[in-house]
Amino acid sequence: MRRPRRQRASLIERAAHVAQRYNGDLRAHAIGAIAIRRDGTLVYARNGSSRMPEPEAHAECRVLRKAGWGAEIFVARMRKDGSIGLAKPCEYCQAALLVMGASVWYSDDEGSVVRL
Ligand SMILES: [Zn+2]
Prior knowledge:
The chain is α+β, with helices and mostly antiparallel strands. Helix content is 30%, strand content 24%. It has one domain (5-115): Cytidine Deaminase, domain 2. It is built from 3 helices and 6 strands. Zinc ion (ZN) is lined by residues 55, 58, 60, 89-90, 92-93.
């Protein structure tokens, strides 16, 4: 089932706020991710500390571990000015997402929602 555009935009906005909620200290890379599991429940993750090994600390990988196979995943960046920015998953995360059968949407530079 394909989600309506407005619902995708709203999920991207929520993902951006997941990043913001934990990043009041204006971190450089405030990325948040929301996954809708196959049973319909939601799980959330944000980027880990920069001291953690990359890219296991990336929000997409962290949410993927909670979500399991076949989830729908929304990834967004919250900029310091509160706008939504580019959150395209890196190649490592893309491979992990693919292997786990995820369908992925992310925010582009204009804050629009793009399918991976
Ligand atoms: Zn990554």
